[in-house]
Structures are given as C-alpha cells and as structure tokens.
C-alpha cells in the first residue's frame, strides 16, 4: 500500500460522513483502491460517529479500518494511534472536518510513485465555514509549488507549516518509533513528523490545490489554546528534534513566532494585559530555548508597533484606509 489517510475524529459525525464519501468517490473514480487505505479512530465520541462510520464500513468498496475507542485518548494519542495502525510507505493526516481536493490526491499519488526521494508533501490551505463557504483567509494561496532538498534549510522553510494537520503527507518509516524514543509529548505531533522528514529527504510544497480547512468554533474543539497559544506544545517538537544544533533549534522557534502573526492578534484581542502575559509565558516557557528568549522580545515589539501604527492610520484615514493600503501595495509591487 502506498498511502494511508489517517483521520482521528471526535464528535464530528456529519463532517466525517461527508469526508468519507468524498474520499471514497476520489479513490474509486481514479482507480486508487490498491494504492490508498483510510484509517479512522473514533475518540469515544458521544454523537452518531460510531453508527455512521460502521454503516460506511459495510459498503466495503475501498480499503478502510475504523476503530472505536472505549475511552477518550486525547488529541495527541489518537493521532499516534492511527499512525501506529498504518503499514503503508506514506501516510496523510487529515482532520475529520477538512477536505482535500481530488486533484491534490491524484497528483500526489503519481508524484510519490515517480519520486521516492520525496519524504514530505505540504499543501496550501483555504479556510471555510462549517457550512462550506469560502473565507478570505488561508495559507500559501499565492505561493508557487516547489521541491526543497533535504536538510536544515528545508526544515526551517517548512516545518512551521506542520501546524495545520490536514493534507500533510510524510514517509511513515521510523517516525513513530523516533517520536516515542525522544519522548516527544504535545498535541502537535505532525510538526515533529514534518520537521523530521524535512531533514531526512525532499519536501514537495504542493500549493496548486488548497486543502479546505473548516474554521470550527473553539467551543466545538476538545482542546484549548491556553494563554500562550500552545507555543510551549509546539516548541516541544523542536526541543526533542535530534541532529540539530541549539542555534538551529532557536531559528526554528523564532521562524514559527515570526510567520504566525495571528497569534499576536489573538493575544491583543483580549487586551494589552493578556498580550503581555502571553509574551511572558512564551519568554519563560519550559520549552523555549535561551537564544529564542533573547530574540523573541524584538519580534513581539515589532508586531505591537505595527498594530499600533495600523490603528493610528485607520483612525486618521477612516474609510480611505483600505483604498490607500491597496494603492501602496500596487505601487511597491
């Protein structure tokens, strides 16, 4: 088997049902039955996930295994559970309420068959509502597809993109045993998997067909962001990554903090005091490296200054702000 699609799920029966039937159609229509297997782990849901998935299983049209947990394993262990059940050369992680494009699946399978030196595939993403409406947000929507050679530069450029679980593909060999051996323990194991494979082999940043990522309400999630946006959880991956220097580890941490500006927006939206408290938690977090502690205050100040400037310009320009901003962008481009 070339590829296993891993779907850890919890209390999203309608989304899971839509996803399974969509994937079944893609697999059958493109003659991929012998190439792809789906593995689902129902994390002790209390909705109709069990009955819906069992009904789908009875169709017996594609390769699929469905497991029902008697107790909730937690987010991380449920991801590790489906990974442990896989036996294919590659695995794809997919959120139960996120949807891959048919062409993304087909072209990825063809590419992996032709080039086994690719260890990781990372998609672009398009955010949608729970009703499927397109939102004006996403990641790498205007970025060209590119293949990166193995090594630290690949890891630096791409490991932060592992924050979004859906559509990520990586070689399965050794990643779970290495993860356990190095005692990695956080709710973002896919960041470790991406970083590990970027160091081991080539990465294909395949942006032509964005994965549709559902923007779920926080109350619908079985986890929270804590006061630091779970940065400590993310940094645990870099702390446990082997064969990198302390300087490289810090570069990975600062890259994450620099590109994910939504975190600062999230902190500021709750007030300046919350912003400062979040920064303190990041600065002195157990998984924050020494060099990051030295560099992070400059990043935080840069964003705060930029945010204050934008508020000032909005106040001065009023309704003309967006028009002026667009003119400026056209000028510099």
TrEMBL record:
Top-level taxon: Bacteria
Domain Glycosyltransferase 2-like: start-end pairs: 4-159
SUPFAM superfamilies recorded: Nucleotide-diphospho-sugar transferases
Keywords of this entry: Transferase
CDD domains (alphabetical): Glyco_tranf_GTA_type
Record lineage: Bacteria, Bacillati, Bacillota, Clostridia, Halanaerobiales
Alphabetized GO MF terms: transferase activity
Organism: Halanaerobium salsuginis
Protein name per the record: Glycosyl transferase family 2
């Amino acid at each position: 088997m070339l590829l296993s699609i891993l779907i850890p799920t919890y209390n999203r029966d309608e989304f899971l049902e839509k996803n399974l039937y969509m994937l079944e159609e893609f697999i059958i229509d493109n003659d991929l039955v012998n190439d792809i297997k789906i593995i689902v782990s129902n994390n002790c849901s209390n909705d109709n996930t069990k009955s819906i998935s069992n009904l789908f299983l009875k169709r017996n049209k594609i390769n699929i295994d469905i497991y029902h947990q008697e107790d909730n394993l937690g987010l991380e262990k449920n991801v590790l559970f489906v990974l442990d059940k896989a036996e294919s050369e590659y695995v794809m992680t997919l959120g139960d309420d996120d949807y891959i494009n048919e062409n993304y699946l087909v072209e990825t399978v063809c590419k992996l068959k032709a080039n086994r030196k690719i260890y990781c595939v990372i998609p672009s993403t398009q955010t949608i509502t729970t009703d499927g409406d397109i939102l004006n947000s996403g990641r790498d929507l205007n970025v060209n597809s590119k293949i990166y050679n193995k090594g630290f530069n690949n890891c630096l450029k791409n490991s932060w993109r592992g924050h979004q679980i859906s559509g990520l593909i990586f070689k399965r060999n050794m990643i779970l045993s290495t993860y356990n051996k190095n005692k990695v323990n956080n709710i973002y194991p896919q960041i470790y998997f991406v970083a590990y494979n970027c160091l081991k082999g080539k990465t294909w940043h395949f942006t032509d067909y964005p994965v549709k990522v559902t923007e779920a309400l926080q109350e619908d999630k079985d986890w929270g962001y804590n006061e630091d946006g779970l940065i400590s959880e993310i940094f645990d991956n870099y702390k446990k990554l082997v064969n990198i220097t302390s300087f490289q580890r810090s570069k990975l941490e600062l890259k994450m903090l620099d590109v994910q500006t939504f975190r600062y927006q999230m902190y500021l939206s709750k007030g300046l005091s919350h912003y400062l408290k979040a920064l303190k938690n990041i600065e002195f977090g157990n998984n924050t490296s020494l060099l990051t502690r030295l560099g992070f205050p400059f990043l935080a100040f840069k964003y705060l200054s930029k945010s204050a400037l934008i508020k000032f310009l909005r106040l001065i320009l009023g309704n003309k702000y967006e028009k002026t901003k667009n003119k400026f962008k056209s000028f510099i481009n």
